[in-house]
Amino acid sequence: MSTFKTRIEDYVGAVGDDTFLGDALTDTASEIIRAMPIDKIKGFTQESGDITDNSTNIANHRIVSVMRERGTDNEYVECRELSVKYFRKAQDSTSMFSASVESPVYIIKNSSIYVFPTPGASPNAFRVESVVFPTVVASATDITDTPDSFPDSIEDIVVVGASAKACQYLMARVKDSMPSEPVLVLSDISVPSTPSDPTISYSNASTGDTVGVAQDVPSGNVAPTDAAGVDLAAAPTNAVSVASTGSVLSAYTRPTVTGSEDTASSNTLTLMTAGAAGNAANKIDFDTFWDVLADYIEDEEDAELAGLQITKIRTYIEAFNSEVASARNAMQALTEDARNVTQASIASKGDDVRASIANASNDVSIKASSISSVTSASIANASNDVNVAISKMNQSTGAAISKMRESTNVNVSNAAKTLEASIQDYNSEISKFGTEIQRYSAEVNSAINEYSNDIQKYSVQVDRYTKEYSWYQDQYVRLEAKFKESLQVLIAN
After folding, report:
1. Which of 53, 174, 375, 393 is deepest in the core (most CB within 10 A)?
2. If we measure between CA atoms, which residue out of 148, 130, 133 comes closest to residue 32?
């Protein structure tokens, strides 16, 4: 005959744990013995010898009957069983539960048997008829722990019951051996830092030194005067002072992505309005984009939505770069405008100075012709001094204009170069940030792809384990039903 192990594995397949199989067989055999009526198990009971003291251990026994000597050698009276709650009352002679030699009792307490009246040597000994719960070994072919052979029909039921327990054991083992669910790990991928605000320093170009009054006014000679007492040697009163002016440029406004619904700003990137669907604030608030992406990845574990969110972020970055390029073009146009305005201002001031000189020369000539009370020498000296002063003024004015023009050109050039350098530096930061965003997106996509592959592998494994678990579960239902049915038939018969 096949071993119990072989018979069980015919039902459930390989178990690989003989110790468990032995325990399952032993427990099932004990379960059957406990369920059977007393008259059904008398065929394989055993009787103890005379027991002369209490507290004998009967943990592995099912009691069939207990017999006590009545005070006469070999004359036995059957003991009735009392609940353990009457343990003291059975020893109290005044209690209705008091035991006597003609009406002895037994009580099971802590897996030990107690007989009252208290037993002793013959003629007060007691005997126990019981069925011993067998210890079944998986490699055995028969249950032989009782005096009489354990019935083969019962052995078959033991095998079925142990096989049902084996199914439960195998289901638990399948569950314990299932692989862990893959985890999407993004903590090792560093999120690029947003570039700091650009520092663009620009000052309007200066037009250079101011052209002041005519230089070297004549002195030491008698100033000719007309009849009204007007000093004809004084500098012409209608001479014009020339000062530099600079073009006023509009302040540079850096593009920003605030993400809020901005109806006041003219910035095309921040001028966003809410759509018709959902919560507008959550969709256009740029500050939440990264939190939303993290929620899709870590909390909802939705790769598709995470990819869409990354595309959304990339779109806004591209729009931001477009705004930066637009701002750069605007600043270049403003710089060129400043240069043109400054040069026009220089030309205008030069014309004013030359007109002033001509007016002054005309006034001196008119006043000189009206002098009648001064000597010809004084007139000649004064005229000479005036001519000298005019000449020097022309020279100094021309030099001032030249200096102003050179200074203005240099300042405009320097301001333009400073502005261009600042814009280039920020463009470099934006380009670097764009590269980092691409790297980050690539790493995130790679992690998501790897996670997706792991999920697919995990799904295949789970499907295999699920099928195996379901088979054991179905087999357990069938075997348990067969065991209960067989046990009922055994009890009924």
Report:
1. 393
2. 133
